[in-house]
Specification:
heterodimer; A: mainly beta; 4-stranded antiparallel beta sheet; 11 strands; 53% strand; B: mainly beta; 5-stranded antiparallel beta sheet; globular
């Protein structure tokens, strides 16, 4: 099976712009989670989607949003970018329908906000 | 206080040494993950535990649910084991909470 893929891999934006990142899970996986990794805060949970519904949400402002399509592909959007949004954004998929399954991580999208 | 605490933060070992990384957590969990992250960012899930002990090659992971503690052991360490090792707990539902990571360097 192909692994989790994320596009784009690298992105440079300026403050105030918005960005959309894409994640394609492993075939058959219905859960997609998004994470932000920064040197200062480490890895933090953004949100999780399962069957097109947001099932869990971390402590991020409303500028961070996401969605999941019927084929389980997921996108996350960050509006009105701030310098502090520069980070590695990772998605992970699992087959879980109730939690407790291994998560498989994508390679990440490295976002730089100037 | 962070929900997930790892120790040590940094670890340098000589090739062949036995290595232990510890993880303590304060919340109720459904499972605990040990992750490995190499330079460049790619994360690999090493283990997922909800009880007892698991072994894969030179890696062993244990968890004590009553003590809210887990350990990752590496036997006969090798320079290719150099990476960041991250403990993450799976809170009920499917939300992962991460430790700060342990930076491991194995010297030849």
């Amino acid at each position: 099976k192909a692994g989790v893929t994320q596009t784009p891999r690298y992105l440079i934006k300026t403050r105030g712009q918005q960005v959309t990142l894409s994640c394609s899970p492993i075939s058959g996986h219905r859960s997609v989670s998004w994470y932000q990794q920064t040197p200062g805060q480490g890895l933090q949970f953004l949100f999780e989607y399962f069957s097109e519904t947001q099932r869990n949400k971390g402590n991020f402002p409303g500028r961070f949003s996401g969605r999941q399509f019927s084929n389980s592909r997921s996108e996350m959007n960050v509006s009105t970018l701030e310098l502090g949004d520069s980070a590695l954004y990772l998605c992970a998929s699992s087959s879980s329908d109730g939690g407790g399954e291994t998560q498989y991580f994508g390679p990440g999208t490295r976002l730089l906000v100037l | 206080k962070n929900e997930v605490e790892q120790s040590p933060q940094n670890l340098t070992a000589q090739e062949g040494e036995f290595i232990t990384i510890n993880c303590s957590y304060s919340v109720g969990i459904s499972a605990l993950h040990w992750l490995q992250q190499h330079p460049g960012g790619g994360i690999v899930s090493l283990f997922m535990l909800s009880s007892g002990k698991k072994k894969h090659g030179r890696l062993i992971a244990t968890i004590n649910i009553q003590e809210k503690h887990s350990s990752l052991h590496i036997t006969a360490s090798h320079p290719r084991d150099s990476a960041v090792y991250i403990c993450a707990v799976l809170e009920y539902g499917n939300k992962l909470v991460f430790g700060a990571g342990t930076i491991l360097r194995v010297k030849s």
